[in-house]
Design brief:
With about 550 residues, the protein is of the alpha/beta class. The protein has two domains: about 250 residues, Rossmann fold (3-Layer(aba) Sandwich), CATH 3.40.50; about 210 residues, 3-Layer(aba) Sandwich (Rossmann fold). It has a six-stranded mixed beta sheet with strand order 5-6-7-3-8-9, sandwiched between helices. Strands 14-15-16-12-17-18 form a six-stranded mixed beta sheet, with helices on both faces. The chain has a three-stranded antiparallel beta sheet with strand order 2-1-4, with no helix packed on it. α3 runs antiparallel to α4. The radius of gyration is 28 Å and the shape is flat. The chain starts with a strand and ends in a 5-residue tail after the last helix.
Length: about 550
């Protein structure tokens, strides 16, 4: 990949400024930096989804690039075909064979004068079939399916029937099978169980091609990367480091320390020159020449002054309540739900539970078992087949959606807060606590990274004044520093919380009282050992 004089701006917001970097083929490159630095935008430029303000990114001719986004769209193409058909479609072997058959039919019909052109087509198709490994392709796909723990019941489902986590996993398997020269991955391990992650890690380490990966998963980065591309938000540049993430941290810290030392030496020298100039500014003769000489040195020093990177602000996240809820803010009785109303096996079957005021209540279960569906039922986005959901008369709900579907993509950040009727200065004060300052507030939500969208959603949550928070994977897409701040804030929240989370550190520090395990609906009081076991259900497919 050759990045040459790359500049990228959104209005007055500049992400990259005249960046030039060359990365050789077959490298495994981790792309790191704070949320909003431009990591996902860099991918969009590579894919041609965004045009840079200046400069370009180029690859060898006809390089095949495939991308796994952080959030898989609900309207994923061919959503009504089976998972297995969807995976098979990653290699156009059937289409090529149909074209080949047509060429042979044309040979028997056309004049000999056209045979050379047809033979050329046949040769091209046969080369393509060789690239796609026609005779071993299905075996390769079955190995990927097995390695990623995609069970036969999932293979038979339609894409439209999958949960968000399952869609991400299937899209990842399809990408691996598609055999591109360059793979782009944006937070690829978010929805992977342990065995799948181990398989993918080993697959990518030995992949005969280039891999570019955005990830907060440090263990994953350390395992697969040969280089780290650091996106510096403050300096609006990219820096390439050899080695894995741990080596990058060491080298980057050493570089920052060296720059800080150079800056101190520079400041001391500037102070010494200025002291001399001030002391002898009215002198004449030799001393006047000495003053002029030092003035030139000071001017040159200031022209080349080292600008230290400002320390990143921390998110200041607080939630207050308008009022106290009833003693039982939420009660669920004999709830039944299925996306297919004729199904004999409902996704949620005869589920009952209640939560008490101020309780932190955790929901766990395997991907696709109905956790997010249950939350959508509670907030009224879905309608149950039978049963009831009772909210206390004083229950005020705020919902944090895993895929941020409650944000309006075509509106700016600031316009997403119209419902709160806050004046500009107050709203800007709120947004600044979530690291959105200056003209950043005029960026449209659709151009934000998933991490930035998370911060917008959390900012809205902070203004809700709700006494019941319903949270679906609230720490997904956030950098580790912001995750810690969010966890500390939720821990100190005085209202009631209903949480779906796969983040063990976050859950363990929340002060969860009880845990609901789906699909059976078992409820247990909090024990650390039990939560760790439930976390295993979220992150590791237990073998039967």
């Amino acid at each position: 990949m050759n990045i040459k004089n790359l500049t990228m701006s959104f209005g007055t917001q500049e992400l990259f400024k005249n960046v030039s970097i060359y990365i050789s083929e077959n490298e495994k490159v981790g792309i790191v930096g704070v949320n909003g630095a431009g990591k996902s935008t860099l991918f969009k430029i590579i894919l041609g989804q965004e045009d840079p303000s200046d400069g370009k990114i180029t690859f060898p001719h006809n390089t095949r690039i495939e991308w796994l986004p952080q959030v898989i769209e609900d309207n994923i193409s061919d959503s009504n075909i089976s998972v297995f058909e969807y995976l098979l479609s990653a290699r156009p072997i059937e289409k090529l064979n149909n074209k080949l058959q047509k060429c042979y039919e044309d040979l028997s019909k056309e004049d000999e004068s056209k045979h050379n052109a047809i033979y050329n087509k046949i040769n091209k198709i046969q080369k393509d079939l060789e690239y796609w490994e026609e005779y071993s392709a299905e075996s390769t796909l079955l190995k990927i399916i097995e390695g990623m723990n995609i069970t036969s019941d999932i293979l038979d489902k339609k894409i439209s029937e999958l949960s968000g986590g399952q869609k991400s996993k299937i899209a990842f398997a399809k990408l691996l099978y598609s055999k591109p020269e360059i793979i782009l991955l944006d937070e690829p391990t978010n929805h992977l169980d342990k065995e799948s992650k181990d398989y993918v890690t080993n697959y990518l380490k030995h992949y005969k091609g280039s891999v570019y990966v955005i990830s907060h998963d440090i263990d994953f980065l350390n395992e697969i990367t040969t280089k780290i591309l650091y996106v510096d938000k403050q300096r609006k540049t990219l820096e390439l480091y050899n080695g894995n993430y741990d080596r990058f941290l060491k080298l980057h810290k050493e570089k920052i320390k060296s720059i800080e030392n150079e800056s101190k030496i520079q400041e001391a020298e500037a102070k010494r020159l200025k002291t001399f100039i001030d002391k002898y500014s009215s002198s004449s003769g030799k001393r006047k020449k000495m003053v002029q000489d030092r003035e030139k040195k000071l001017e040159k020093l200031l022209e080349n002054k080292i600008e230290l990177t400002p320390k990143q602000k921390e998110t200041d996240f607080r939630i207050e309540m308008n009022r106290e809820s009833n003693k039982i803010p939420l009660k669920v009785n004999n709830l039944v739900f299925s996306y297919d109303k004729d199904s004999k096996k409902p996704l949620i079957n005869n589920l009952s539970f209640s939560i008490t005021r101020g309780e932190k209540f955790l929901i766990v279960g395997k991907n696709g078992i109905g956790k997010s569906t249950l939350l959508r039922l509670i907030i009224g986005k879905l309608t149950p087949i039978s049963g009831e959901i009772k909210l206390g008369v004083k229950t005020d709900i705020a919902y944090y959606a895993q895929e941020h579907e409650l944000l309006e993509d075509d509106k700016t950040i600031i316009d997403n807060f119209e419902e709160y009727n806050l004046n500009d200065s107050v709203l800007r004060g709120v947004l600044s606590r979530f690291l959105f300052t200056g003209d950043e507030v005029y960026k449209k939500v659709k151009v934000l990274s998933p991490g930035e969208k998370s911060r917008v959603a959390l900012a809205k949550l902070s203004l809700s004044k709700a006494n019941l928070l319903i949270l679906d994977e609230p720490t997904n897409h956030l950098d580790p520093e912001t995750q810690k701040i969010i966890a500390d804030t939720f821990k100190n929240y005085k209202g009631t919380m209903l949480i779906v989370s796969h983040n063990p550190d976050f859950v363990d520090n929340l002060g969860v009282e009880r845990t609901l395990t789906l699909p059976k609906g078992n409820i247990s009081y909090y024990k650390k050992e039990e939560v760790e076991y439930y976390h295993e259900l979220n992150t590791k497919r237990l073998k039967k």
